[in-house]
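Hi R.,

Here's the input for the flavin-adenine dinucleotide complex you asked about:
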Amino acid sequence: ALYTDPASLPRTTYDYVVVGGGVGGGVVAARLSEDPRYRILLIEAGPSNEGILPVEIPLLCTRLSPNTPYTWNFTTTPQAGLDGRALAYPRGRLLGGSSSVNYMAWTRGSRDDYDRIAKVTGDIGWSWDALVPIMKSIETLTPPPDGRNTVGEIDPSIHGTNGPISVSLHMALPVDKYSIETSQELSNFPYTVDYNDGKPLGVSYIQAAIRNGSRVSSATGYIQPALAAHSTLDVLVNSHVVKILQTGSSKGVPIFGGVQFATSANGPIFTVNATREVILSAGSLGTPQLLMLSGIGNSSYLQSMGIKPLVNLPDVGQHLQDHPSVANVFNVNSSDPTTDDIRTNSTFAAEQMAEWQASGQGWYSLSPGAQFGYFRLPNNSPVFSGAGDPSAGPSSPHVEIIVSDGFGGTPQAIPATGRYLSLLTAVVSPSSRGSVTLASTDPFADPVVDPNFFSSSVDIGIMREAVKTARQFAAAPAWKSYIVNEYGPFQSAQTDADIEAVIRNSTLTVFHPVGTAVMAPFGSTHGVVNPDLTVKGTKGLRVVDASVFPFIPAAHTQAPTYIVAERAAILIRLAAILS
Ligand SMILES: Cc1cc2nc3c(=O)[nH]c(=O)nc-3n(C[C@H](O)[C@H](O)[C@H](O)COP(=O)(O)OP(=O)(O)OC[C@H]3O[C@@H](n4cnc5c(N)ncnc54)[C@H](O)[C@@H]3O)c2cc1C
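And here is the predicted structure with flavin-adenine dinucleotide in place:
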């Protein structure tokens, strides 16, 4: 059942206790609950997702963060690579975690992204070929809200038909034809039917976790169906986990079999025990914070913070990676609506809301963006002369261009009038790495988050080339009558130095932090978790969330995290059978 008050939990001992009801935790808790032998507790700091309309309506996703009741309202440290700016760095804080507030894009990543993970962890189970059945098992390919014929816009043969997450294309948009014509006109922007086949390079229609015009999250796809189907699962919301407890040791290895939590900073502390495993799924910022608060991390650092070190794992909180993005905005001369009209035309907005409420159709059924373009820089690009090529391999892009029919993705003030096209460019193979550390030993204090954007020179070089690539895309004959001119600071940026200056001044995050509890081979002295996601040097503790990626996939990170979590559920069940 779903509990809002810890005092009403029916038991204090479970087989598995899962911390964090986001993508990783939602999947694992739901899958483990399918086995009638086990009792599972999922603990989430935030509230239930149910009944929150903006969480359901795809187009309202941009209003769910930052600084709302549904997010952890973190801020980065001032970023030296971004002219000293500190960025809002929200994460979802409700059932479904960030999948309840994210922008829903569904991108698996490239074959090389997964094959690289398999290589650096020494586990072939993380390779693309091994994971394809898992990828399919997550998905149900669903028609777009307008029900149109989508032949040639997606490849049904590579998608699943019976999984918890619906994946669909958007309704057809007026802007679609310009992107597709561009791919016919310019050979360096080829059309590719489906970027989820492991070879994402080219221009494709965006796929999103949306069903009949409503968001699909780990809460709606996994947690709620599991609660309805299995009496084995308890879900406790509004409960902030403050510590993972050592409950014993076996041959000198500490066993972590307990979890402490509270409903507020001054509230009483509750404890539950896990006889089999504690699964930590608090996300790339919450997981390293909790590990460190529990004595797992760099021992000398923990000592300096006044925390008793229990397991020395210096990589906890290190290696944070994220995708930086900038928006190249254009004024457009459009006789059709753009998403700007929802903001600038209240009659249009009301009509569209009525249509969404009646049928799940119309502009509110859209998540941001119309097409994704994935591109590589030439192998001999001078950008790679220092740090080398950071991409996973030839199937993996350096750059993403998000074609978005409206104003967005920039720190500039949103104009009150006008119609716009935004070509958001993201460095999807960054080499910069940052960190998550503790501001204090107070578990309710925000961690110190430093994505360290553009600390590696190759990343600023890739972004500079990405901006030029976006301009080439916009210069295709297809856009001639549509695009009027560039809008905002890029307009006057012509030299490389000018472009870099605008980049540093306007880069934001795509909200994809990973890597703060990285996987590394069994027996290695580096890394935080083993390839089966058990925490090194411990018993009874696993991490299942985006923090385990040793390299950031060249993709939006929710589908990769669902993939990690589905495989984790298999590994956990296997470990139970073998124990
Ligand atoms: C604004 C935004 C837009 C995004 N857009 C996209 C997109 O379009 N496509 C895409 O693929 N990805 C997107 N992402 C990224 C994607 O959502 C994440 O990669 C994914 O959700 C990561 O899953 P996770 O399990 O690691 O963490 P999360 O899904 O964030 O889950 C972590 C959970 O742990 C809970 N938690 C944390 N600390 C504690 C604690 N101490 N006690 C109890 N519970 C705790 C949190 O409240 C949360 O519910 C976006 C993210 C954001 C924030």
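One thing worth noting: Residues 2-50+219-319+514-578 form a domain with the FAD/NAD(P)-binding domain fold (CATH 3.50.50.60).

Cheers,
M.
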